[in-house]
């Protein structure tokens, strides 16, 4: 796709990052809440990092959540769109083919304090840094840090089947514990047995597993936005704060407050 169709505010700087013959190039831009970058792809791989804010990245295969102090790896030539869940201070690195990917496909990855400072430092360097310059040394350290990044379970597989996609879109628009498989089967015009089969074949997860991951990701986004766990529990349909906290701890090994502390 042509870079000039993505976002007129960043297209010139983006094109420079994609053209420059260097292993690593950096781009910074701040976005408003609910800003949307339409489907596009790049000839270089990229690492999306938000100093502040959360985003949801979508591809044909799934959706990934970017939380503060985490990053999203997107391989070259991967079509994706991005939705800002609140104001976002985005810092993006682009990589040529010489840099080893932390994962074979899109992935949420951990960001060490060192990598975080290297990302910020890379933005202070000229894009055409000399081979023995500070910029080249920072780029080499970034590539080294990428090799030890850990992938994180911050994704949700997305179906290709048109009918199931419509159901999943509806569930994502209003994520809630209420509405069992029979309810969603009736809304989709299929039997619960067919819906169960579709979820398993299209996402590799049962209906219950997929819905639980949807709610967990939504809860993590809302926590990162500063919402209280009591408010989130109510919004997502849990009978009590205790029930929500028990779900969260079972899924992550942390209470909501412990998880939030880990984001800072």
UniProtKB/TrEMBL annotation:
It holds the Pfam family HTH_18. The keyword GTP-binding does not apply. One of its GO terms (molecular function) is DNA-binding transcription factor activity. PROSITE patterns: HTH_ARAC_FAMILY_2. Keywords: DNA-binding, Repressor, Transcription, Transcription regulation. The keyword Secreted does not apply. CDD domains: cupin_NimR-like_N. Residues 165-262 form the HTH araC/xylS-type domain. SMART domains: HTH_ARAC. This is Transcriptional regulator, AraC family. It comes from Granulicella pectinivorans.
């Amino acid at each position: 796709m042509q870079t000039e169709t993505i976002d007129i505010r960043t297209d010139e700087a983006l094109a420079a990052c994609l053209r420059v013959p260097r292993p690593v190039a950096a781009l910074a831009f701040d976005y408003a809440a609910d800003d949307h970058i339409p489907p596009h792809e790049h000839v270089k791989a990229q690492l999306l990092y938000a100093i502040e804010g959360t985003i949801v990245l979508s591809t044909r295969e799934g959706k990934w959540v970017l939380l503060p102090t985490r990053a999203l790896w997107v391989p070259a030539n991967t079509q994706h769109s991005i939705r800002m869940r609140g104001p976002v201070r985005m810092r993006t690195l682009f990589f040529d083919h010489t840099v080893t990917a932390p994962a074979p496909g899109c992935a949420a990855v951990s960001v060490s304090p060192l990598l975080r400072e290297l990302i910020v430092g890379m933005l202070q360097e000229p894009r055409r840094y000399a081979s023995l310059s500070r910029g080249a040394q920072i780029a080499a350290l970034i590539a080294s840090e990428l090799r030890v990044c850990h992938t994180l379970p911050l994704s949700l597989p997305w179906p290709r089947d048109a009918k199931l996609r419509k159901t999943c879109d509806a569930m994502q628009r209003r994520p809630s514990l209420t509405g069992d498989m029979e309810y969603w089967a009736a809304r989709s015009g299929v039997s619960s047995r067919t819906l169960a089969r579709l979820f398993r074949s299209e996402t590799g997860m049962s209906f219950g597993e997929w819905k639980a991951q949807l709610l967990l990701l939504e809860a993590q986004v809302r926590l990162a936005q500063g919402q209280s766990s009591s408010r989130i529990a109510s919004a997502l349909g849990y009978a009590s704060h205790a029930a929500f906290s028990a779900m969260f701890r079972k899924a992550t090994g942390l209470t909501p407050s412990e998880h939030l502390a880990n984001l800072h």
